[in-house]
Structures are given as C-alpha cells and as structure tokens.
Amino acid sequence: MDGENTTIYTNHLHARSLDSTKDESHRWIERFRNAILPQLNQLKNWRICGENLFYKHTIFYQDLENIFLAYSIWSENNDKNEIKNQSLSWKETKIIFDKIGISYPALIYEGIYNKKTILEKFEEYQNTKERQVEGFVIRLEEAFLYQDFSKAVAKYVCNDFEITSTKHWRYEAKTLNQLQNNQNIWTKIV
Question: Which pLDDT does position 190 carry in this prediction?
C-alpha cells in the first residue's frame, strides 16, 4: 500500500508525523474516525494503524475497498497483565477489524514462513492486478511488543517498483485514488 501511514486513537489521530499538515485527506480520515468512534471507545487505550490512501503517492489505485486500510492494533496499556505498547495477534486484529467494519490489505499468504511459497503467492496476486504492485509486508502471527517491531515485521519491495517523480507527492498536483465501482469517497466512509 502506497499511502500515508496514519494512527487512529479514540480522541485524536495523526499521520506519521504528529505535526503533519491538514488537507482533504485528513478531513476524510477524521470523518472515518468519527464513524467508527462508538466501536473505538470500547477498545480503550488502543490505537489502530493503517494507510490513508486518499491521494495517489506513487501508485494510482482505482479499485480500493476503502480509503483507509488498517494493518495493526496496538494496546497502550493492558490492565490485566501490565503489557504496554503491544501489537495484538493477527487473529485478534482481524476479528476486531471485521467487527468494526475496517478494511485491511489483501492477504496473499497466511501460514508458516516459506519464502518460496510467499513469492509464488505474491506473483499470483500481482497477476490479478492491472496496476503496479509495490510489494508486501510480513508480520508475526502472534502478538509482539513495540520494541520488537524490527524483528516482527518485514517489508518486501519489488525490484521493478519505480518511483517516477522527483518531488514528494504533497508538492505535486494531487490525484484522488478511487474506490471500487467508482463509489464516492465522501459517501463510502466505512
């Protein structure tokens, strides 16, 4: 996913940087947060991380399920066992996303790590897409602590993935990515 890394809390949200500028994409993600707020309030002290795909960065998406695709939920403080800053297991994460109605990236493989199988599955996935695919992310199935992130998550970028612009996407003419079936991004919030 080629978007803006965004973290959603019950009382605020931010892009990768806490002082990121506000624009239409941030207004959309704020509406999204407000739409899921009743469910978020039940999560207490958790944050949801994902990609805000409102604007084209290097890849133009024409068939998104939603503008925000989430990939992790983090517990700030679990009162039961005093674990702080822990990513929930992938199973728990998907259950919560499905319950709230939050979309997440296409899964190309789930199972024991096998590089050959993963690359074969990724190639199969690429062949179903008319657009360029940047790569994929691998994460541990079980929960992990924030300090173990670099050992628990890895990103693979295709050799032929090409960044065609010399400017950061914010300083170019902005292009809206598109939802499946040309749905209006302002009416398809969740």
Answer: 66
